[in-house]
Structure formats: C-alpha cells, structure tokens
Design a protein that fits this description.
With 421 residues, the protein is of the alpha/beta class. It folds into four domains: 90 residues, 2-Layer Sandwich (Nucleotidyltransferase, domain 5); 48 residues, Arc Repressor Mutant, subunit A (Orthogonal Bundle); 54 residues, Orthogonal Bundle (Arc Repressor Mutant, subunit A); 166 residues, Nucleotidyltransferase, domain 5 (2-Layer Sandwich), CATH 3.30.420. It contains 15 helices and eleven strands. The two termini are 43 Å apart. About 2% of the residues have low confidence.
C-alpha cells in the first residue's frame, strides 16, 4: 500500500503494556510523529475516546479524512464502523485482516469488559444479535454463546480481570480457588494481607489436601491477575467509621434537610492541611539518572474549603497560617483573594471558625438568605455561635470518611491540582 503524501491522513495505532500501565500509541506516517496516552482497558469505547483525543492534537480541524491502521484486536475491530470516529472524519482498518484477505476468518476473542458491553448493548431496544455481532466484529454464533453464559460473565466481571479474554486454570486450581475464598473472608474482616502471607496460606491449603506445593512469585502474580487483586496503600479511615450512624444520617437527617432547604442553600465546610513548600514525590529525569530526594519541607497551612450541594457556589478559601501579617501580603488584607487568619500551629481554632461564620452570616443577612451548613464535630467547630441566617448541622462522630461531602473527592481533586507538576 502506497503511503500518502499529505500529513495527518494516515496513522498506525496499537496498544502496549509497560510497567503495569496500558498505553495507546498513535504514529503519523509522513512525519513519524508519535503520541501516546494512558488507557484503562482495551474496550472499544475507551480506545475510541483515546484515538479521538490524540488525533485532535495531531490534526487540524480542516484536515482531510484520515485512515488509522490497527491490529485485529477486538477493541479495534469494533471501531471499524464507529459513528464518533466518522464525526471526526476518521476510519479504522485492521491491516492484518487485509493481508489475510481470502484466507479463513480469524477468531476474535473479546475481553471480559467487551463481553459485558456487548451483552448490555443487546438489552437496548431494537438491537439484534446480528447487529451486535457486526458492531463488535464477531460472529453471530459467538454472540449466541455469550448470551447463554450471560450470568456467568457478569459474575466474573464483578471479581475478575476485566482485560482477560480467556479463563485459564492455573497450576493447583483447587488451591487457588480455596485461597481466593480465604482471601475474601479476611478482607471482609479488615485484614491486611501481604504476598508472603498469601503464599504461606497457599502452601498450607495444599498440605491440607495432601499435596506438596510451593507457590512461586509468578504463580502468585497470575493468581492475582485472574482474580483482579491489586496491592494498594490503605486510604482514609473508613475501617473505624460508625456505619450505623452514617446510615441513619442518610436515611433520616439528609431527607429532612433536603425538604427544608434548596440544594443551592445546603453547604459543607471542611479543613485540609497543605504543605505549600513541598515538592512532588515524582519528577522527570534521564532514564539512567537517579531522582535524588531531600528533606521534606514541613511548612504547612490549613485551608478551609466550603461549597454548596449543587456545585453552583464556592466560598473564598479561608487560610490559617502562623504569621499575623506575612511579609508577602499587601497592607490591606481585603485585597487578598482569600480570607486569612493565624494561629500558633497554623491550625483552625474555634475563635477563627466563629469569626468566619459571623462574617458570612452578616453577608447572608443583608441578602435575606438562609442556608444550612454541614460540618464535622471537631473541637475547632463550636456549636454555641450566635447565628441568624446559618443553621449548623454537625455530622455524627466517626462518620466523616463515609458521609462528609467534601471528603468524597472534592478536596482531593483540589490538592492534586495544587501539587501537580
């Protein structure tokens, strides 16, 4: 096939796995310009969004139609007649299929995630097995087999590896199944299980069945991949949370608040620490060099974040530092884009929280507006503040990790944006 001479009309795409990350590569033929992005899986919808994103960066809006050659993976095959790609004047062809034209049709194995998407697509009105087979690039007989094993596929999707195409039984299959049951029991009890502990338990389970088995690191890695198990750092304090109190809050308190206030008038406020001099733990360097670290900068400030339930209003940040009047500040504090207070440890105090509430309460009184403010019951949040237009609602103790709205990713997103490189 002759390569075109116009830049941005012919591309090649493929996926590679590198250090537990899945990358989508897109190369332009004329200039050999190559771009990549991370993708979560090889589902056709994920690949479609990633291809559009990369092509937008590599092509101008008035570029002529472009062709993307890919391998015959199931995710790419399902994109051959994709409507979203057509809107961006893109088309996908499997080059291996073109080279094998006239030979017997190659079997396409769908990943577990693609199988689930196919089954959900069949539930749409007016979708037949034949149209679904054409959309996903498989045969109708394969679709029929998937429909018969529908419940089994959904069960595997809940606990299995979503990128797996075929379920292969590993060495000592019974030991692996018994180990997974034991693993689920221990996780439900809040246990922290390491790799050596899992291998030791596998040896004990094999001995109980009368066989000798010493699991290797490779066996453990494949076992974790089959059951979609990852080694992660614990997050938050949910293990010690009061689940019954949080459930009571959701079922009784929240409905009463929603009945009394509009979503625009329900606010949540919470504090977070910010090490403003801290450097990111990761950075760019040459592959052969070592990224040398240093002593962590421990200078911190406290930031009070406040926003309403509908997301239409955000209060100015309230910063608590150590200095009464930092040298970098203007003489007139009202010129700052944030509110500022100070304390000995740069922590929020009951006095500063009360001042912040009274200032906001005065603004609301002038607007003749009443709001409900949800806060946790820490010692820095006094309940005896005289307010006229703000109703304070305190979350139950030990429930902030479960029902604190700003702890559900809002503050984390802000911190990631602040600390991003």
């Amino acid at each position: 096939m002759d390569l075109p001479g116009v830049v941005g009309t012919f591309f090649a795409a493929n996926t590679i796995k590198r250090e537990c990350q899945l990358l989508l590569l897109l190369r332009e033929y004329v200039t050999s310009l190559t771009m990549a992005c991370l993708v979560e899986d090889q589902c056709h919808s994920t690949l479609c969004d990633a291809l559009v994103q990369l092509c937008i960066e590599m092509r101008s809006l008035d570029s002529p139609p472009a062709l993307i050659r890919t391998d015959p993976a199931s995710g790419f095959t399902a994109l051959c007649n994709n409507d979203l790609l057509k809107q961006h004047r893109l088309s996908v062809r499997n080059f291996l299929r073109e080279s094998e034209h006239g030979s017997s049709k190659k079997r396409i194995d769908l990943s577990l995630a693609d199988k689930v998407q196919l089954l959900k697509h069949l539930q749409l009105p007016g979708v037949s097995q034949a149209s679904a087979a054409k959309k996903f690039g498989v045969s109708t007989s394969q679709v029929s087999r998937l429909v018969k094993a529908k419940q089994q596929i959904f069960d595997q999707f809940d606990t299995g590896n979503h990128n797996r195409k075929r379920q292969r039984a590993g060495k000592e299959e019974e030991v692996g199944s018994a180990l997974f049951l034991w693993f689920q029991q221990k996780i439900s009890q809040g246990a922290r299980l390491s790799g050596p502990l899992l291998k030791q338990k596998a040896t004990e389970l094999a001995a109980a069945e009368g066989s000798e088995f010493t699991p290797s690191d490779g066996w453990l890695s494949r076992w974790k991949s089959r059951h979609n198990i990852a080694y992660k750092k614990e997050q938050g304090e949910k293990q010690n949370a009061d689940f019954p109190a949080a459930q009571h809050w959701r079922q009784h308190i929240i409905p009463a608040i929603l009945q009394a206030y509009n979503k625009d008038d329900i606010f949540n406020a919470d504090e977070t620490g910010l090490y403003y001099r801290g450097l990111p733990d990761k950075g760019h360097c040459l592959k052969g060099d070592e990224l040398v670290g240093g002593k962590k900068a421990m200078e911190r400030i406290t930031t009070l974040v406040c926003a309403n339930m509908s997301g239409t209003e955000k209060r100015p940040l309230f910063i608590i530092g150590k200095s009464r009047q930092p040298r970098c500040f203007p003489r007139d504090p009202s010129r700052l884009p944030v509110d500022y207070g100070h304390s000995k440890n740069a922590w929020m105090t009951g006095e500063w929280f009360a001042k912040w509430l009274k200032k906001w309460d005065g603004e609301l009184r002038c607007k003749r507006r009443r709001i409900c403010l949800l806060v946790d019951n820490c010692s820095a949040h006094p309940s005896n503040v005289a307010l006229t237009n703000i109703e304070l609602k305190f979350l139950p103790p030990n429930t902030t990790s479960l029902i604190q709205p700003l702890d559900m990713g809002v503050i984390k997103t802000g911190r990631v944006t602040t600390e991003a490189d």
